[in-house]
Amino acid sequence: DTAVSQTPKYLVTQMGNDKSIKCEQNLGHDTMYWYKQDSKKFLKIMFSYNNKELIINETVPNRFSPKSPDKAHLNLHINSLELGDSAVYFCASSQERLAGGDTQYFGPGTRLTVL
Amino acid sequence: AQSVTQLDSQVPVFEEAPVELRCNYSSSVSVYLFWYVQYPNQGLQLLLKYLSGSTLVKGINGFEAEFNKSQTSFHLRKPSVHISDTAEYFCAVSEGGQGAQKLVFGQGTRLTINP
């Protein structure tokens, strides 16, 4: 069974469109994250949710809006897509027991290409 | 603010040779340190982590890392690499007691194993 899954795996779209990426984890974790990995492989956190509550919100344009319908799901909606949004987006989850020392489990990534 | 520097962007090594991937961090408080590996077209997975205690940490696939507080380093080593170790390796740091874990990643080191 896949622990952290994301859909779609690939997403190709035109500038100006709105798109969503879905993430689900079946690990029973309380905390979920979204990361962006750019073309140089640099990985940066975007958001974190704990039990459906937004905990971390980095300096991300407000065109990006995370939504957590329940603690097993964290979706990422992006409005008015721009060329610079092209990247690989990773979802991750962890069980917050060690106050910063927990292992994060990553999904396979969604490669977003904006044309 | 925390930061992580991986001193080598690429490391080519021959199969069965030893390897060291270097990582330095900066933080004003006590930290947790991690090494994650990303195989081609996959998400990240944890290799090992340092929380406290012994400064030599052993991880999966024969990797180990040594935490050196005075040099603020957490270098990753393997005595004999295999072709299957070809991947991108990320060093990361998080601070304790902050609620949802905020991982700050280094730029990554691409390890290429040549036969």
Describe the protein.
- The complex is a heterodimer of chains A (115) and B (115).
- Chain A is built from no helices and eleven strands.
- Chain A has strands at residues 4-7, 10-13, 19-25, 31-37, 43-50, 53-57, 64-70, 73-78, 87-94, 105-106, 110-114.
- Chain B has 115 residues and is mostly beta strands.
- Chain B is 0% helix and 54% strand.
- Chain B contains no helices and twelve strands.
- Chain B has strands at 3-6, 10-14, 19-21, 23-26, 31-38, 44-50, 56-58, 64-68, 73-78, 87-95, 104-105, 109-114.
- Chain A binds chain B through residues 4, 31, 33, 40-45, 48-50, 55-56, 90, 92, 94, 96, 98-109, and chain B through 32, 36, 38, 41-46, 49, 51, 88, 90, 94-105, 107-108, 110.
Topology:
The complex is a heterodimer of chains A (115) and B (115).
Chain A: E1 4-7, E2 10-13, E3 19-25, E4 31-37, E5 43-50, E6 53-57, E7 64-70, E8 73-78, E9 87-94, E10 105-106, E11 110-114
Parallel strand pairs in A: 2-11
Antiparallel strand pairs in A: 1-3, 3-8, 4-5, 4-9, 5-6, 7-8, 9-10, 9-11
Chain B: E1 3-6, E2 10-14, E3 19-21, E4 23-26, E5 31-38, E6 44-50, E7 56-58, E8 64-68, E9 73-78, E10 87-95, E11 104-105, E12 109-114
Parallel strand pairs in B: 2-12
Antiparallel strand pairs in B: 1-4, 3-9, 5-6, 5-10, 7-8, 8-9, 10-11, 10-12
